[in-house]
Amino acid sequence: MSDVSGLLPSSMVRTAAATPARVWVSPEHRRKLQLVLAAIWLLDGMLQLQAFFFTRAFGNQMIPTMAVGNPSFIAGPITWSGTLIAHHAVPADCLFAVTQVAIGFGIAWRATTKVALAASIVWAAGVWWVGEGLGGVLAGAANPVNGAPGAVMIYALLAVLLWPSDRASVVPSFTAARAVGERIAKALWFVLWATLSYFAVLGANRSPGGLAALIGSETAGEPGWIAALDRHAASLIDHRGLAIMIALAVVLAVVAVGTYLPAPAANTMLVVAMGLSVLIWVVGENFGALFTNGATDVNSGPLLILLSLAYWRRPGDRSIRPEVVSATAEAI
Amino acid sequence: MSGPTWLADFFAGVMILVALYSASRLVASRRWSRPTHADTDLTHILMGVAMAGMLVSAINPIPTVVWECVFGILAVFFTWRCGDFVARRGVGGRDEDHVHHLSHYVTHVVMALAMLYMYLAATPSAGSAVSGEMGMGGASGTTADFVGFPLLFLFVLLGSAVWELDSAGRWAPAWSQTKQPEVALELAGAGSFPTTTSENVASSAMHARDETRQAIRPPHLQSPEWLAPGLKATCHIAMCVTMGYMLIVML
Fold this sequence. Notes:
The structure holds 2 protein chains of 2 kinds.
Chain A: H1 29-47, H2 56-62, H3 72-87, H4 89-108, H5 113-130, H6 151-161, H7 177-180, H8 182-200, H9 210-216, H10 224-237, H11 241-258, H12 263-284, H13 286-289, H14 300-310, H15 322-331
Helix pairs in contact in A: 1-4, 1-14, 2-3, 3-4, 4-5, 5-6, 6-14, 8-11, 9-10, 11-12, 12-14
Chain B: H1 5-32, H2 38-55, H3 64-89, H4 96-121, H5 148-170, H6 181-189, H7 198-215, H8 229-250
């Protein structure tokens, strides 16, 4: 491959002309999305290797905060898990890191994709409970601006929608419908985004100063430019929280309904969804707080973008036609 | 290094193994007249030694300033290779060599730049200025506000690791691939289906079968044999993961 002529003997170097080029089979759309999901899982596993998570503070301080405001039957296991993790900080964190790295590599390795996706659903459910306190849904603290209803639930949703199988006798117009069918896929999209819309105007989220206070409180531990961005954003929206959250709720609701529109309009709504996700990730989530040395995942922004890409209407794409899949598979 | 010592030791051990293996590849390819990616192997040796030294400062053999020069040169070299390749063959291209060359150059540019960043951003440990030893901590001083760079590097490296693993699976023995229709599906979707009638689909699928069998054939059955491509891919993945860990520690 590398013709570093003059550096090494020619026998050690293969040029492109020396061998016939092989056919490069580019991953199809769903596989590309799976690989992005795998990379995000891998990143999550690596984040778990930060020094903080090997200390008792992870179990004693971070986990118990997820129990606050939750019903006792939810809070109890969270507190118990926090204590257990604190007492066995190093092995527990190793387990978390290895599991997530294994899920990432498992999705990337074709032979284990299904097993890894299935494992990711189970793992995500556990983390949603213990690590995210059900995203604050039952505590009344869920806010789409900072990741509600819990980024990890979107991992599970993506695992279902990107499951490597195809429903027979159905011609889906987008990738997310290949495994579960269009009706279910659209319903899942609607429920997710409608829920986000509902959370936007829930309780304290619609108070005039609520949004500014939320964004202003996220500066701790962030680099100077992100903290400055937060401060400016908080200053800009101060006392305008109600209007902004109502507007956000309306946009989220339109995005939710957008999946039932014809392809061009649906894709327009997907662009809106992706733009909103970027805005939320940058301003509301501070890039998943990745720079604070305490982040366990990238938060919901990138996952919502990935989800939107899975719903992108591709009416001219023959690769998502199941009859082609089955006929080709049989021929092989 | 801010992080468990045993974890740094573990990653340093992996990097030393990668460096030793990459060195052995250069010797073996010459001895057995087998083609190898010489630039990659040389880069893996340098990066493996350098990263092991960053993780465990006691085994850092070379002063920091030398490493900075080395990785600066490597970054320029791979950038030049990338530009030269694009100028000669363009960005588009569907053959395996083309795609692999391009991703290979871009990834190694990023890896070299990531190494440079880590040397520039790492907090020197006490008494290390003369010996060149360094300790890794969070980015500080002038680099503290440029944490976007390691995040970008991180995304590229982890993406490359995942891509490499997927590619490795793609070239697995044919008998392990026959139940996975997606490879054929991709070929089928590449334009070989004029209509969607069942006859045409079946005919085209048969055609795709032959292409697929060729495409999924292991490299050693197709061309002059590459030297252990699977192990090389494993080294690349290990390097990406280790570098990713170091960047995360520095975030």
